[in-house]
Design brief:
Blueprint (H helix, E strand, L loop, with lengths): L27 H27 L1 H7 L24
Protein name: Esophageal gland cell secretory protein 6
Keywords: Membrane, Transmembrane, Transmembrane helix
């Protein structure tokens, strides 16, 4: 009977394979901080943009004044319905 040929033992590779670095996940505190920072940035940009258009004092006063929407200007033969949204 013939003996099966044995395979030569594999030599350990000389190259050392480095494992990829572990993936870090953000903690809930970091996510909350990120959301709050984004909201603060958006609010700041909105205030600056509104202040540039009409001035900071007039813009801040306009936040608390009464908002009145005038009726639309249409010919007499047109029926209009205006809804109050407040």
């Amino acid at each position: 009977m013939a003996e099966p040929e044995s395979e030569p033992a594999e030599e350990p590779s000389k190259e050392v394979k480095k494992a990829p670095p572990p993936v870090k996940e953000a903690s809930p505190a970091q996510l909350v901080g990120l959301v709050l920072a984004a909201l603060a940035l958006a609010t700041t940009m909105s205030v600056v943009q509104g202040a540039q258009e009409i001035g900071l004092r007039r813009w801040s006063d306009s936040l608390f004044e009464k908002h009145v929407v005038p009726p639309p200007e249409v010919p007499n033969n047109v029926c209009t319905i205006q809804f109050c949204q407040s």
